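Service request form, structural biology core

Requester: graduate student, group of Dr. S.
Request type: structure prediction, single chain
Budget code: on file
Notes: please return the result as structure tokens.

Sequence provided:
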Amino acid sequence: MSAAFLAILGWVAFFLGYRFYSRWIAKRIYRLRADAITPAHTYEDGIDYVPTNPFILWGHHFTSVAGAAPIVGPAIAVIWGWLPAFLWVILGTIFIGGVHDFGALWASVRNQGRSIGSLTEDVVGRRARSLFMIIIFLLLLMVNAVFAVVIANLFVNYGSSILPAWSAIVVAVVIGYLLYRRGVGLLWPSLGGLAVLYLMVYLGDVLPFPQLSAPIWILLLFAYAFVASLLPVWLLLQPRDYINSLQLFLALGLLYLAVLVANPTLVAPAFNFEVPADAPAIVPLLFVTIACGAISGFHGLVSSGTSAKQLDRETDARFVGYLGAVGEGALALATILATTAGFASRAEWQGFYQSFTSGGLSAFVQGGSTILNTGLGIPTSLATTLLAVIAVLFAGTTMDTAVRLQRYIIEEWGQIYQLPALTNRYLATSLAVVSCLILAFGAGGVAGTGGMTIWPLFGTTNQLLAALTLLVITVLLVKLARPYWYTLVPLVFVLLMTVSSLLLQLGDFWSKQDYFLLGLDTLILVAAIWVVLEAAFVFNRARMEARIQKVID
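Core staff response, request fulfilled:
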């Protein structure tokens, strides 16, 4: 199979999905209104609620949701063959992920910019809200603790990525100042920022940089995340994510261009019938292994957590939410191409994929750098630096946003349970960071790798959150007497795959006598079933009320 053909096929599908399906969803289901006043205007405070240019907000949203997961997930899942991964990324993005992200953003904007967890109380009930927010906090804890480890290991293994990754922070602050305090237009800061970032990529490749141990990097990353979570979004978060999105899309553009020029062959099989012994069954694990890049519960947290507070006009929700999901799908597609066409032969590919966990970032960096070198003549070392920087910046911007989201959750707990101290953003941020550090160093010792202890539950917890978010959106649509099948069908599919995966994991943890993960898995499963049962009751009641009202009318 030609890699160039597969890339073109995927891009055409994404274009058609955004051009037609998302427009239909916006008009018929979510019914966006150009005259609606968004929370960014109603509660504007210059810190979290800031009306934002849709292009800048799209950059923030895209880079926040597109962490390392849309690289790691597909890079592992191709072990079952490239075709299942390709189909799930394309169809999942168009019909499930885009609708989910768009819907979470719409629901939050229509409800004072509240998070999807807080919104659950109004839509489903108080008990469901409490259970939902516990699952959300647990997921954010996983994301922050693990992504800190991922970034630290990338810094250790690819030291050339350190300079460009940290330089992006300085570039972002300068751009934020120019845009919001000096009134400079968007064009020149964008071009200047890109030029500086790519200069740093080159310098990072040719200049040595002092190397630190992974635990030190983890501490530095959380110190940065603490400060970033407290700064006004216009000063760092928005411009950092925006300029990163430009740099990342330019880098992805180079990778896709190299694919078109070199047109390598996919050496991996369409369906791999010789998977390693430790590889689980493709169904349901494919739909959990590839989360980000198809559908991800974390996206709903970003949509309803930070993006909803910055949306200038309600009609921007389609561009920011749905197209943000498409952007991540494009990254997942690039990963599939890099990890299946970036090897010289099937034997070399099989040699790399000797176990279920052997793929991931290293496969993406190795395969992608080979394609960039073959197609565009970029030196392998420079190409490796470029792709490592992509992974670091995606993971870093996700970590920025996730810590801020943890702060929002703690502040919402303070409001819900009338604990004024928790509404203090300095205390809330401190609690968020300290909880991550306790997990990282408490469970992982001096290495700081404690997040990896509960990482096996990330995929199922993340997809479970996606299903519950779709559940809230569906119930909300029923209450508004809107068509709901376009969220209900994806909800049922994702929920079935996720619960099946949770049950399989229960058996695996039991056989390994891993009672900690067994108990945590059971807790998550019970909480999810409880939320679903309560939502089903509300769903049926809302349907009956809608039918009665229709008869009366």
